Amino acid sequence: MYRSFPMTTSRSEFCLSQPKFTTNMESAYIRTLIHSLIQLANNIFFIWSTILECCHTLYDESEKFIKGCMKNGSSGGSAKGKELRDIPGPYPLPFFGTTLSRSLGSGDLNISNEVSVREYGTIVKLEHYWNYPLVFVYEADDIELVLKTASFYRPEMEIVARHRRTRPDRYDTVGIVNSQGEEWKKFRTTISTIHQNAYILSYASSCDEIVTDFIQVIRDLGTTRIENFDDLILRLTFENSSKFILNKRMNSLDPRSIQKMDVFIHASHQYFKALQVSMYGFPTWKYFPSKVWDLFVKYENEMYDIFAELIEEDIQKNTAGGLLKNILNSESLSLKDKKTLARDLILAAMEPIQNSTIIALHWISRHPTVDQKLYQELKEILPTKSSKLNENSLQQLPYLKACIQESFRITPTTPNLARFTETEMQLQNFRIPPFVSQKIRVE
After folding, report:
1. Alpha-helical regions (H) of 281-428
2. Angle CA(257)–CA(261)–CA(263) in degrees, nearest 5?
C-alpha cells in the first residue's frame, strides 16, 4: 500500500504529512475486511445449513427405503427378534446414531414420545452420538418392571460431572444427581426424610404463608396481564424450596430484593440452557474449546457462589434448620458434599416445580367447569380470606389433587426418567443387556 512513497519516509512522518488520505485508506480497508468476513461467515453458514438439510433428507429417505425392504422381506410366521439390535426404531447412522431423525429430534420430548409410539410401538431403540443405545419403554407393565429393578446407577449429566471433577477445591464428589453406586446411596440415605409424607405435610402452614405473600404481590401489580409470569413463579418456587430445605425465608418476593433475585434468575436460566445444549446438542464441548462449556462454567460458578453464601451463614451461626440440619449432621458426607447436596436439592426442585405450577394453572384456566368446581372445593375448606391451609385441610382436597395429577398426565414436566439396570432384563421378548440406558415415559 505504501510502496509508491519513498522508503526514507517513516510511518509517523507519512501520517503527519498525509493524515486525510491515510485515514480514508485505512477506513476503507477495514470496512472491506469486515464486509468480506461477514460474507464469508454467511457463506459458511449457508453451506452448513445445506449440508445439514441434505443429511436430514438423506436420512429420511434411507429410513423409508430400509423400512420398505424390511416390510417386503418379512414373513408373517417369522419369530420376533430377541436382541437389543432387533428392537424397532429409526435406522441408526454411524457416529450420528438416530440424532438426525427429524420426527424424533423435536425439541418437545412429549411430541417425540408420541411419534415414537405411533411409528414403532411401545418399546423403541434410539441411538445417541457414537451409536450409544437408548431404550424407550412406554408399556405400563414394562415401566413397573424397570422401576422395581433395584439399581444404584443413573446416566450422569456429563458436563456437570466433568466440571466438578476439575474443581476439587469446591467438590469432593460430583453430587447426588451424578454419583453412582455406594456413593449415591450415601447421599440418598442422608435425605430419606424428604420422601416421608408427614415431613412434607408439616410444611403446609409455611407454604400457605408464602403463597399469601405471592398473592399480595400479584394484587400490588394492579393488572390482569402479568409480564414475565414464569419469573414470578420462579421466585415463589425459590422461596418455597428454601423454606423446605433450609427452613428459612429468603424474601425473594420482596420488591426490595428484586435486583438480587434478577441476578439469580438470569444465572439459573443460563445454567439450565447450557446444560440442555450440552445434553442434546452436538458434543463439541467435550473435545474443543466451546461457548457451551464456557457459559456453563460461568453460571455454575455463579450459582455456587450464591448458594455458598446462604449455607455458610447457617453453618457459621449454627442456625441451620429443616433438611439442611439433617444434612449437616450426617457423618458419612464431607462438608463440601453437604453444601453441594443442599444446593443441588434446591436447584433440582426449582425448575420442575415452576413448570408444574404454570402447566397446572394453564390447564385449569382452559376449562371453566373445572375451574369452578375446584373453586367450590377450596371455598368449602377455606371459607374466608383469613382461612389458613394446614396439614389437615390439605388432605381434604381430592379434586385439587386430581387436577394436578391430570395435568401431569397431559403434560409431564419430566417426560422421561433414565435408568440403568445392573442385570440383564427381558422386556417384550427383547433381551436388554446390563447398563443400557432405559428411558421410561412418565404419566
Report:
1. 291-317, 322-328, 335-366, 368-381, 391-394, 398-410
2. 130
pLDDT in tens, 268-309: 889 989 998 998 888 889 988 899 999 999 999 998 988 888
Residue 134: what residue type?
L
**Banded model confidence at residue 80, pLDDT cuts 50, 70, 90:** very low
Q: Are 228 and 242 a contacting pair, CB within 8 Å?
A: no
Name the grid cell of 105. Answer: 429430534
- Rounded distance, CA 395 to CA 401, Å? 9
355/413 Cα distance (integer angstroms): 6
- Residue 309, CA atoms < 13 Å, CB-side half-sphere: 7
* Cell reading at 316: 457459621
CB-based contact 143:427 (threshold 8 Å): no
Q: What is the pLDDT of residue 324?
A: 87
Closest CA to 253 of 267, 266, 240: 240
- The end-to-end CA distance of the chain, in Å, is 71
Q: What is the strand order of the sheet 123-127 is part of?
A: 123-127, 133-137, 437-441, 416-419
430 pairs with which residues across the strands? 427
Three cell numbers, residue 371: 375451574
Indicate the helix (H) or strand (E) that contains 437. strand 437-441
**With 70 as the cut, is the pLDDT of residue 84 above it?**
yes
> Strands, E, within 96-175: which ranges?
123-127, 133-137
- CA 259 to CA 256: how far, in whole Å? 8
CA distances from 396 to 208, 401, 408 (A): 15, 9, 20
| pLDDT of 63 | 53
